[in-house]
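Please, structure for the following, as tokens.
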Amino acid sequence: MKILYSLQGTGNGHISRARDIVPILMELAEVDLLISGVQADVTLPFEVKYRFKGMSFIFGKKGGVDLWATYQNGDLGNLMKEIKSLPVTDYDLVINDFEPVSAWACKMKGVKCVSLSHQSAVLSPNAPKPSKKDLLGSTILKYYIPAASYFGFHFEKYEKTIFTPVIRRQIRDLQPTNEGHYTVYLPAYKDELLIKHLSRFPNVNWQVFSKHNKEPLTFQNVSISPINNEDFVKSLASSNGVLCGAGFETPAEALFLKKKILVIPMKNQYEQALNAASLEKMGVPVIKNLKRKNYATIANWLEDETTIQVNYPDVTKEIIEALLHEHYYIHQKNTDVKYQERIRVVYKVLGLK
């Protein structure tokens, strides 16, 4: 079986999750990797066969997506060239983690594409939604990745084919501690704004990881470091709490490590509004921005030691096995007794049947 596994390269979550998914896929099939997009700060320790510009949202510096920079960075002509050039017909199955080039190539060339992503889960009618509707945001999220079917990840299991987050092995193997500091990851804010607001809480040691600074610096009680996976994981594991955007992987990892979190959804990013709705329903405090009117909420969060209890079992291999069975092997009529018994176990573990 030959698989193309394609990843969104904007942000770090998709690539971080792939670090655990790719080795499992490679155990079960022949796999080629594709990454499109920009602004990722982590890399994959595997050979990547296809690298494309794709279509990416660009992080701003005032708490949201920079729509103008996103427009300037976009190139529909180049995107169409990339879509047409990708030989998706060479593969038995394309597995897609929110990556547009392979998804649209599959749609154009009649190849089956299965979405394995967080984004496919947030649109579920059973997943929480924000009170304020965003027609443009929901339309973009719905049609950005055309796929034949979906397996999704979310903070809770809202329906049969939505699973709890893939917590990478590097995080699962940690022994969390509490050294009193707070870890901050707000990539849509420039460092000057973070320093301005976080320094208003002088008794707190803030460890900020920045997309906008290549050299470490410290201002009063706020330390700024360039994003480095090892340093970030160390800070996260030893923190008292985490202040972050309403992405998926960072809040999920913080919850898994039993850290209290406060989230600020990125402006102009509907997926983060959906995530914030789910987290708020779980009991996680959410604020719209770092402005003075939200200082009281931040102060209350700093004083409150309440953490949200979650159960995120390690079932990544079972999810991959179920996906391959549903979308490939079931059509090959594999009657091997050991294989059939394994699939029964997988389905029972995942609650699929």
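The radius of gyration is 20 Å. The CA atoms of residues 127 and 215 lie 40 Å apart.
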